[in-house]
Amino acid sequence: MPRALLSVYDKTGIVEFARQLHELGWELISSGGTASVISDAGIPVIDVAEITGYPAILGHRVVTLHPSIHGALLGDVSDPAHVAEMQQLNILPISLAVVNLYPFSSNPSIELIDVGGPAMVRAAAKNHAHVAVVTDPMQYSEILDALKSPSGINSTMRKSLAAQAFAATAEYDTQVARWFSDETTSLPERMSIHLVREDILRYGENPHQQGARYRIVGKASWWNTAKQLGGKEMSYLNVLDGESAWNLVSNFDSPCVAIIKHANPCGMAVAKTIELAYERALACDPVSAFGGIVALNRTVDTTVAEHVIDIFTEVVIAPEFTSEALALLKSKKNLRIIAAEQPTGGHLHMRSIDGGMLIQDVDVVETPVESWKVVSTATPTEEQLADAVVAWVACASVSSNAITLVSNGQTVGIGGGQQNRIDAARLACERAGDRAHGAVAASDAFFPFRDGPDLLARHGISVIVQPGGSQRDEDSIAAANEHGMVMIFTGTRHFRH
Questions:
Q1: CATH number, domain at 439?
Q2: Which pLDDT belongs to residue 190?
Q3: Mean pLDDT (whole number) for 164-186
Q4: Residue 335 CB contacts under 8 Å (≥ 6 apart), including other chains
Q5: Would the pLDDT of 183 be above 70?
C-alpha cells in the first residue's frame, strides 16, 4: 500500500483529507499534533517515532530528521541501486508528503524557525518524480481528484506541486532572513524579498503594458485588507494614485480629503466636516480634479457621494461607506470604490533600476511644531501655524521641486514637478490667483536664492515654511523680514522625485 506523510501546522481540512486517503487505501504516517488530530478522529495513523525508533527530542526540535524518513522521501524507486539499498535498510518509500510550515512571520522567534518541515518539503520536491508534495490545504481537493482518477497524479501536476513547494520554502527562508537582518540594520548587505501576486491589473502605466500588484510576504499593507466594492479593475496608475491619496489623508486626525492626479495632489483640505473638506479640496483645482482619485478619511454618506459623482472620478477610497452612499456611487458603473484600513507605514521604499534596485527608508512626514524654528522677526498666529502644518504635509506629497499654498486648511495653489523652485512658486501662485493673499506657503526644500520668497511676497503670502539649510538662508530671511512675512525652518527636507 502507498504511504503518505502528514505533518502540518495549519490543520485546516487535514482530518477529512486524511480520512479520504485512508479510504483510498493509503497508509498514514504522522507526528505530534497532526498525529493526535488524525487519531482522535478515529483514522488509523502510524506515529513517526515507530518508523524512526526515536521519540521527539530537544523540545521537538528533532522529530522527522532521520534516514528512515528522508530516505523514504528521497529514494528514487526507478533506480535499482536505490531500491536495493532501501530494502537492505528496511526503508519503505513515501509517495505523498503533506507538509506546511510554522507561520514564522506572525510571531517571529527562534523556536518558530522550522527545520524539519522545510527539510521534508525540499526532499519531497527534489524527488517529485516519485513523491507528490502538498504544502497548502487549498491543494487537497485537486490531489484527491487526481488520486481518484485512473491516471493518478501525473508528471505535470508533480512538477507544479514541486515548484510551489520550493516557493514556499524560499518564502519561509526569506521571512527568517529578514527577521535576523532587521535586528541589525534595515539595509543589510544581502536582502531577499519574496513577492506574491495579489492582482492582475487592468493594464500597466499604458494600455499596451501588462501590470500586476504584488505583496511582500511577511509585511502588512492596507492593500491586503482593502475591499473593492464596485467599479472596473484597478490599473497600475490607479494603484499608484490611490497609494498617494490614502497615505496623504491618513496623516490627519481631522476630516481630510485629497484629490490626486498623476501621483500629485491637485487639491487637499482639512475641515470640520468631510463634506466641507471635499468641497474645499475640489475648489483648489477643479480642472485637474477631472479623472482623479479621491481619498476621504471619514465615512462617506449620501451627501458626500453626490459631490463625488458630480465630477468624473476614477477611484474613491474611504474607511467605509453608508449603504445609501454605496448604492449611489455604484450608479457610476466604472467608478472604483475602495474601503480601506489605515496605512501600516514603516516599509522600505524601492525603485527598480537597470539590473537592480534603489532602496531607502520610507520618508515619514512629521510635524513637531515645537521644534520648528521661527527665523523671521514676525511670528505666526495659531491659525497660521495650523495652516503651516497642513501645507507642510501636503508639500511632501507633491513631486519636487514643490510649493503648496494653504489658507484655512485648504490648498489654494500647488506647484510641483518643476526643475527650479522659482517656477514651482510661480505655478502655485498662478493657480491660486487672489486666494494666495494671506496664505501660507510650504517648500519641500530650501530656497537657494531670495527670488522665491520675493515672488511669494508679491502674491500676498503671509508665512513660508521650509527646511532651511541653504548657504543663502540669510538672504531668504532678509526677504521675509523686508516683506513682513513669517519664515519657519523645519530642518527636514522632503524631496519626492
A1: 3.40.140.20
A2: 74
A3: 80
A4: 230, 231, 309, 313, 314, 315, 316, 329
A5: no
Burial (CB count within 10 angstroms: exposed 0-12, middle 13-18, buried 19+), residue 408: middle
Query: What SS3 class is residue 489?
Result: strand
Give yes or no: residues 205 and 276 share one domain: yes
Convert the pLDDT of each residue in 46-69 to its tens digit: 988 888 888 888 878 888 888 989
**Backbone torsions φ then ψ of 276, nearest 5 degrees:** -65, -40
User: For 482, what's the count of Cα atoms within 13 Å in the CB-facing half-sphere?
Assistant: 14
The residue with cell 485537486 is 142
- List the one residue out of 368, 297, 308, 386 whose CA is nearest residue 339: 297
Question: What is the domain-level CATH number for residue 11?
Answer: 3.40.50.1380
Q: How many residues does the chain have?
A: 497
Please report, as a single letter, which amino acid is at residue 287. V
Sign of the alpha-carbon torsion through 288, 291, 292, 298: positive
pLDDT over 70 at 6, yes or no: yes
**Catalytically annotated residue among 66, 232, 262, 307:** 262
pLDDT at 477 over 70: yes
The pLDDT-based confidence of 185 (bands split at 50, 70, 90) is: low
**In 3-state terms, what secondary structure has residue 480?**
helix
Q: Clarify whether residues 304 and 401 are in a common domain.
A: no
Structure-block grid coordinates of residue 465: 515654511
Q: Return the bridge partners of 29, or none.
A: 5, 46
The boundaries of the domain holding residue 484 are: 371-489
Task: Establish whether 128 is a catalytic residue.
Answer: no
Dig out the grid coordinates for 437 from the structure. Answer: 493673499
Task: Tell whether pTM > 0.70.
Answer: yes
Sheet holding 3-8, edge to edge: 46-47, 27-30, 3-8, 96-100, 132-134
Distance CA 72, CA 87 (A): 11
- Please tell me the total count of domains within the chain: 3
User: Distance between CA 116 and CA 62 in Å, rounded?
Assistant: 7
Whether 38 and 14 have beta carbons less than 8 Å apart is answered as: yes
Q: What is the pLDDT of residues 187-236, one digit of tens each?
A: 777 777 778 888 889 989 899 999 999 888 777 788 988 999 999 999 99
One-letter amino acid of 240? L
Note whether 267 and 206 are same-domain residues: yes
Q: Which residue among the candidates 11, 126, 307, 330 is catalytic per the annotation?
A: 126
262 is catalytic: yes
Residue 34 and residue 154 in one domain: yes
Amino acid at residue number 331: S
Identify the pLDDT of residue 479: 95
Residue with cell 538672504: 475
Q: Is the pLDDT of residue 375 over 90?
A: yes
3-state secondary structure of 108: coil
Cα 448 from Cα 425, distance rounded (Å): 13
Longest dimension (CA), the chain: 97
3-state DSSP assignment of residue 14: helix
| Identity of the residue numbered 342 | Q
